[in-house]
Amino acid sequence: MSEVFFVFSILNMAVLVYIYFGYPILLVILTRFAPGKSVEKGEIRPKVSLLISCYNEEKVIREKLRNSLALNYPHGKLEIIVISDGSTDRTDQIACEFEKKGVVLLRQEGRLGKTCGLNYAVPQATGEIIVFSDANAMYRPDAIMRLVENFADETVGYVVGEARYVDAERSPASDSENTYWAYEIAVKKMESKVSSMVGGDGAIYAIRKALYEPLLEMDINDFVNPLQIIAKGFRGIYEPSAICLEETSGKFEKEFRRKVRIVNRSFSGLLRVKSVMNPFRTGLFSLQILSHKVLRWFACVFIANFFVSSFYLALKGSIFFQVVVAAELAAMFCAYIGYISRDDEKAIPIFYQAYYFGLVNVAALFGLYKSIRGTVQVTWEPHRIETRDDREAPIAHVAIHTSAAVLLLSFLLVLQSFLKIDMFVWKAALWTAFALILYTYFGYPLILFIWSALFPAAVSKSPCTPTVDILTCAYNEEETIEKKISNFQELNYPREKVRLVVASDGSTDATVEIAKKFENDRISVIEYPKRRGKIGVINETVAQLEGEILLFSDANTMLEKNSVERMVWNFSDEQVGGVSANVVLISENAPFGAGESLYYKYERFIQEKESLVESIIGADGGMYGIRRDFFSAPPGDTILDDFVISMNVALQGKRVVFDREVVGYEDNPISCRDEFFRKSRVIAGAVQTLKRCMAVPSMNRKKLLFCYLSHKLLRWSTPILLVVLLFASARLAVGGQGAPYSLLLGIYAAFFLLSFAGFLTKHRKNAAPLIVPYYYCLENAAALYGVYKGVFNRQSVRWRKMRGKKSEVSG
To answer: Which of 224, 281, 328, 657 has the smallest CB count inside 10 Å?
Structure first.
């Protein structure tokens, strides 16, 4: 086995060395000893069309057009075309100001993407040479002239200029981009001398119009179009004297999104023009595309393979690989410090450069994944525009924190090999973790089942009609608020005894306007203009309510007609202070619906048995009620409002019970990503309660404390226990401690493989057996991230709508 890992490790190391050092060295050798054909330049001045692609570029388009009109190129031979991709700002209006100077505005309605815009504009362009440019790329006066001189050589099909980055404000991100770009420019220059430069540059590159082929909307034009030209037998040249200046994105998160988009579209485009990878057709260029692009895109996979294999060999006692692992851990440590200090202008370069290296490799992997699963990003956002929907950045942060956790655990494993920690300690850790996990998921439910059967404490229900205030906190719920109000109006409960209060937490959509159309003596709308978080809204609104029973219900939770009636019957028992409803999730369309459905059935069983023992541990925020007199306002930054509010009732000596007959329905078709961050928010809130000793039963409440420790505290600790179990089983298996540990590690690996298969097939209706392990891993990975956020206070108290659930504001 060690021999296999050794060969595997050396191969991955060799590939990584080749990607970043071997390929540039090979280019140096080829330029010295096997130079390609030189370019025969000439002072030609063909008709040129300069195409400027725009989307909401009002901040820079005027300067760009002035720059373009001032270019040193013969009058009448330069056509300037602005392509507006459905801009919604003043871009088009500003462009029209230059019409008298010959600037042409072509607008395509709707966001169709840059490539569709070029397909629309190129046939209308009159130039023999087409120059592609971005709105923020400012050309040197002779840039066009320097580009077109290369087309005097009939073998040249496209020419790429040199984009230089300038920064209004220096930052670690801009420094990292400049370092990376200097490396890229050196490679491009050598590729151009040897054969052809790989790809173009959307800021400044030119082609012969006759060679342009209409592209698919998902193609990235400055990569696919050059590949098509290479496939036709022409060359691609780098021209360093054709210079343009543009600003870097200036933020690591924006650079991450840009890299994801580029790799995502480039990989899909390469598969469409895969003939360029045939050495019998494109010669040396096939090696260049493999080395410069394909292998670099997959570098993250090689890095992971190398780390795992070298780590195994280090644990086996190899001195060489122990040194290698130490170097890998040091690099990971530098990257994590770079992440923490990424916004500090005084940060040390080695740290943020290491972070940037890791970030772009993770971005490439993410882009590949999206491409392989068939998701290709068509439209783009200029990095100058601040976007709220930053989907990939949180995932990058999760990957970073995961790497940091691996770093810490790996360091501890390596450390123990030097400290000679006895295998008994590893065995004790493994079996303790295993026993606690087994107890949490199987032992505790079994104890509840037996306890509730032998000593049941049933609730004494009887019909009653106390006054009820239903409180719905809403943030941007225009899609569901009218349905919620209609649902309230259909309830079977005395009209004079029930009221609905809709409290808007700084909604920016039409939530308030829609709700106010229904205002009357039974329906009230309270608008809080400034966002404060759900708990802030609850605390301020409850102080204005007078109902005997407070019923909290989310905007997307629809109540059965008799649900309020069934709930309040429980309050005829003086010992009952709170009731949690049976909220049924309608999640068949969710990618993890089967796993979530099974989880909720399991949870309902436990809550039902806890109700017969004493109290449930935490109510369901979708729908639960409490006695008004027992509401205790939590602090204004509390994350888990439903858990703390309901537990405060139990801590005052009242029972909080689950009633299966009180039913609500919640449409829950959220994505895996949203579910991940929802769960991480829950665990971050749980950690917050522990740090503040909120909602923690005292030793005087033995049954409640037992349920709290078993149902919540151990469940919250499960992801940590799973990590302990993984590393302990790996250490014992590698240490040759016997077949049981190897078997346990094998089971662990098989479970992860099933989970990964579930991830790949999550949208298939017949994949339920695989969805369950996938959902379990998703929830526990999210919980681990939630622990981090809770410990370091990184969780916002505010929430945002996620098609059925609420979660943190991402980012």
So the answer is: 281
Task: Give CA 746 to chain center in angstroms.
Answer: 30
C-alpha–C-alpha distance, residues 263 and 743, integer Å = 39
Angstrom CA distances, 358 to 184, 370, 655, 711, stand at 17, 19, 51, 38
Q: How far apart are CA 546 and CA 527, in angstroms?
A: 19
Q: Are 106 and 83 in contact (CB under 8 A)?
A: yes
User: Which of 81-90, 159-168, 385-394 shows the highest mean pLDDT?
Assistant: 81-90
pTM reported for the whole predicted model: 0.63
135 Cβ partners below 8 Å, 6+ apart? 52, 53, 54, 57, 60, 61, 64, 382
Q: What value does the mean pLDDT of the chain take?
A: 86
Q: What's the Cα-to-Cα distance from 316 to each of 28, 325, 339, rounded to whole Å?
A: 39, 12, 32
> Which pLDDT score is estimated for 456?
93
Cα Rg of the chain, angstroms:
31
Is residue 771 within 8 Å of residue 675, measured between CB atoms? no
Strand order from edge to edge, sheet including 523-528: 523-528, 498-505, 468-474, 549-553, 623-627, 576-586, 655-667, 557-559
User: Helix H segments across 494-533?
Assistant: 511-516
Of 495, 507, 436, 505, nearest in space to 470 by CA: 495
Predicted confidence (pLDDT) per residue in 264-283, tens digit: 888 988 998 999 999 999 99
- CA pair distance 17, 266, nearest whole angstrom: 23
Question: Tell me: the pLDDT tens digits for 490-548?
Answer: 999 999 999 999 999 999 899 999 999 999 999 999 999 988 889 999 999 999 999 99
d(CA 110, CA 402): 39
DSSP H or E run through 546? none
